[in-house]
């Protein structure tokens, strides 16, 4: 992985975008909340409140940032629960065809996720879609931060990819922040962690309800 053909480039988010894991995410979040005695959230309420960095999300719910000890305990519970329940999740509808079509048009694509790298790569590989990407990067180091600096490193590793012809497709406002940080564009998808209302507060970024619409917007923005 590393080089690519000519044309526009998409940086895909994984969780909540290509990978439809909402049920595992909300279950893991509520399991983590139980560590602090926080009442469980519905998926709808989660999508209204969720934000990055994740400790700020917890602050919205309990009125303060978790202590380091609380964060470590909640983080461990979250990842343990998620690892057990992600096996019941699959790709978002239409993903294999969208990836194949984008690649066949001479464009390139990659994945940048805040999911731990050593878990992400075999998961992507297991769905048989890895050949569509010139690079797959997950998170190295502690969880809970923003994607912006990770995006800087990701684009530096993509030979010949130009930020001005790059579009980030993700389900969180932080994806748009990361895109802006490197001079790329973004399209936000309503099928994951954020509600449409929260995504529409991000200025100048298209919000779509399907990944087909996201790819069409990406092609327009990168033209």
From TrEMBL:
It comes from the Bacteria. Keywords: Hydrolase. InterPro entries: HAD-like_hydrolase_sf (IPR050155), HAD-like_sf (IPR036412), HAD_sf (IPR023214), PGP-like_dom2 (IPR023198). Its EC number is 3.-.-.-. GO terms for molecular function: hydrolase activity. Pfam families: Hydrolase. This is HAD family hydrolase. It comes from Streptomyces heilongjiangensis.
